[in-house]
Specification:
Layout lengths: L1 H18 L5 E5 L6 H10 L5 E5 L4 H8 L7 E5 L5 H6 L4 E4 L15 H18 L4 E4 L4 H14 L8 E3 L2 H15 L9 E4 L6 E4 L9 H12 L1 H9 L7 H18 L5 E8 L10 E9 L2 E5 L7 H27 L2
Helix pairs in contact: 2-10, 5-6, 6-11, 7-8
This protein binds nicotinamide-adenine-dinucleotide and (2S)-2-hydroxybutanedioic acid.
Protein name: Malate dehydrogenase
InterPro entries: L-lactate/malate_DH, Lactate/malate_DH_C, Lactate/malate_DH_N, Lactate_DH/Glyco_Ohase_4_C, Malate_DH_AS, Malate_DH_type1, NAD(P)-bd_dom_sf
Subunit structure: Homodimer.
Length: 339
């Protein structure tokens, strides 16, 4: 008992001394939700975070009081809509994670969430543009293919759009793809890092297995691709009406935030696939696309090309682009009609 506590404290101390270079405030909007709570917990355990602010329409202060007792150095504050709560949660923030909004129930697509979540994300984006225009905005709320363009349009309308600082979090697709291939091949998932490009729903999720040296074919390949594209549905079905992925998403969101923090603190070569304002398919009218992105102190440092892919992967990409274009246009149109 004593030994394990001693080891834990020693690890914590090492982590603190390695990282306490820079003050980093992280804000979670929707911090009392299914994703928000474990994500906030993981951010509290991250020694790079010095201040953690949780905002939710309900329950932010309670979750913050609970997490705030954990013996890491960061200060935790919780806010709700009264008394300028949102503004206080956002002011001074370097990273804003947005998992606010409703999750799917069985039988729904992510697009079915649009009617509810589009206005939630629009209003939160307005608050970010006003209170922390220079923060990195990490959008988790679905449908990501549309909510990211909604944020961009709001930031543009307020004259503070910085395409290098807006990210749709697609890390869960990469996490799943890496786990699923390790299950198939009997490898260590920690050694797997499968590239996934496109967007974050159904056929817009395109795993590029060949880039990791794998050459599945036939049913094996079809099953793998299907599982990555519809991994979210697997969880929605299993939760049977109680929501969608929360714990794996919290891990994925925390991983992406950690990558940004590392890059902001000067680490080079930090690369994550993420859905950003991208030049890759702009000539086809597609302004946002997820591919490998090198992160840096200014957010997006470099957007990687897709690279070499197989004819099968090209077919998946072609199908992706058709849906993605519609999803993006829907977000842009929403802000035009409902500014
Ligand atoms: P949830 O219902 O458990 O939690 C959502 C939280 O948002 C609730 O606490 C709610 O009070 C809060 N909220 C609602 N409106 C708000 C507002 N205007 N301001 C602040 N907070 C608000 O849902 P969840 O399971 O945490 O999922 C949240 C979203 O994340 C869903 O849209 C879901 O589809 C999406 N999601 C995305 C990914 C991804 O890979 N990007 C993965 C899983 C889930
Ligand atoms: C996921 O991929 O798990 C999320 O987008 C949630 C969902 O609705 O599937």
């Amino acid at each position: 008992m004593f030994a394990s506590r001693h080891i834990f404290n020693a690890c914590q101390r090492r982590a603190f001394s390695a990282s306490a270079k820079q003050a980093s405030k992280v804000t979670v909007l929707g911090g009392a939700g299914g994703i928000g709570q474990p994500l906030s917990l993981l951010m509290k355990l991250n020694p790079r975070v010095t201040e953690l602010a949780l905002y939710d329409i309900k329950g932010g202060p309670g979750v913050a009081a609970d997490i705030g007792h954990i013996n890491t150095k960061s200060n935790v504050t919780g806010y709700q809509p009264d008394a300028d709560g949102l503004k206080k949660a956002l002011t001074g923030s370097e990273i804003v994670l947005i998992p606010a909004g409703v999750p799917r129930k069985p039988g729904m697509t992510r697009d079915d969430l649009f009617n509810t979540n589009a206005s939630i994300v629009r209003d939160l984006a307005k608050a970010c543009a006003d209170s922390c225009p220079d923060a990195n905005i990490l959008v988790i709320s679905n449908p990501v293919n549309s909510t990211v363009p909604i944020c961009a349009e709001i930031f543009k309308s307020k004259g503070v759009y910085n395409p290098k600082r807006l990210f749709g979090v697609t890390t869960l697709d990469v996490v799943r793809a890496s786990r699923f291939i390790s299950q198939h091949k009997g490898t260590d998932p920690a050694d797997e890092n499968i590239t996934v490009v496109g967007g974050h729903s159904g056929v817009t999720i395109v795993p590029l297995l060949s880039q990791s040296g794998y050459s599945l074919s036939g049913k094996d390949l079809d099953d793998f691709v299907y599982r990555v594209q519809y991994g979210g549905d697997e969880v929605v079905k299993a939760k049977d009406g109680a929501g969608s992925a929360t714990l794996s998403m919290a891990m994925a969101g925390a991983r992406f935030a950690e990558s940004l923090l590392k890059a902001a603190q000067g680490q080079k070569g930090v690369v994550e696939p993420t859905f950003v304002d991208s030049p890759l398919y702009k000539d086809q009218g597609i302004d946002f696309f997820s591919s490998k992105v090198e992160l840096g102190p200014n957010g997006v440092e470099q957007i990687h090309e897709i690279g070499k892919i197989t004819p099968e992967e090209q077919k998946l990409l072609d199908a992706c682009l058709v849906d993605l274009k519609k999803n993006i246009a829907k977000g842009v149109e929403f802000v035009k009609q409902n500014p």
